[in-house]
């Protein structure tokens, strides 16, 4: 299984990755993305994962824009500090 983490706070992204690896060390996490623009650039050259873990509010907007632009049907687990 391949998982992509989209989170602009590096400590939070590292904590999410640690928990994923604790649950299943065989999960492939090829990259952690920090912005909408970075994610769209990455996916212009790479395939979609099996699952996303994503913050909602990124430094350059809402992560929903990534999934709208990609027309992705990949499941997303949203990780946010907001209610």
Task: Count the E strands.
Answer: 6
Structural class: alpha/beta
Separation, N- and C-terminal Cα atoms: 29 Å
What count of helical segments does DSSP give?
A: 3
Rg measurement, Å: 12 Å
Spatial strand order of the main sheet: 2-1-3-6
| Series of H and E elements | EHEHEEEHE
Description:
There is one protein chain. With 83 residues, this protein is of the alpha/beta class. The chain has three helices and six strands; from the N terminus they run βαβαβββαβ. It has helices at 10-23, 36-43, 64-70; strands spanning 3-6, 32-33, 51-54, 57-58, 61-62, 76-78. α1 (10-23) links the parallel β1 (3-6) and β2.
Question: Could you write a compact summary of the structure shown?
Answer:
The protein has 83 residues and is an alpha/beta fold.
What attributes does this structure have?
83 residues; alpha/beta; 6 strands; 35% helix
Annotate the secondary structure layout.
Elements: E1 3-6, H1 10-23, E2 32-33, H2 36-43, E3 51-54, E4 57-58, E5 61-62, H3 64-70, E6 76-78
Parallel strand pairs: 1-2, 1-3, 3-6
Antiparallel strand pairs: 4-5
Helix pairs in contact: 2-3
